[in-house]
Amino acid sequence: MTLPNKTKDIIVKENTYTITFPTNRQLMSIYSRKAQLSKEGYDSLNTSRDGNSKYVAMLIDAIATFENIMPPQFFKDLNVTRLGDLDVIQGAELVKVYQDQYEPFFNSVVMAIAEVLNSTKENKATEVV
Questions:
Q1: Is residue 99 part of a domain?
Q2: How many CA atoms lie within 13 A of 16 on its CB side?
């Protein structure tokens, strides 16, 4: 199994921020924050055929993730304490950064997690035989 990089540089405007893949606690916080931001309606937003609902789900993804993994300097540079307080254009820029820079990084680690889980199942199957 090849492990993906655990760090990633995220570039927002002229600033670069080094992040690491979320810890277990951060990952749980991200998903809890998604539920909180969507008032438990995240799945409905994410699977909606309405483009605005889908966009709001992507915005929730970006906000919940970046609130939990970005360094304090990121918030200082944006001059906000909460990403939900950004204006809608800044929110769209945040979604773009999330989609273009963070999602591929996150997906590579998710694939590694899947490999670990699948290899465990395969090992158990061979142990039983």
A1: yes
A2: 4
Could you tell me if residue 24 is inside a domain? yes
Checking if the pLDDT of 127 tops 70, the result is no
The distance from CA 83 to its chain's CA centroid, rounded to whole angstroms, is 14
Residue 40: CB atoms within 10 Å? 10
State residue 116 phi and psi, 5-degree precision.
-60, -45
Domain count, the chain: 1
> Residue 2 and residue 119: Cα distance in Å, rounded?
13
CB 83 within 8 A of CB 68: no
What confidence tens digit (pLDDT) does each residue in 14-58 have? 999 999 999 999 999 999 999 999 999 999 999 998 989 999 999
Task: Read off the pTM.
Answer: 0.87
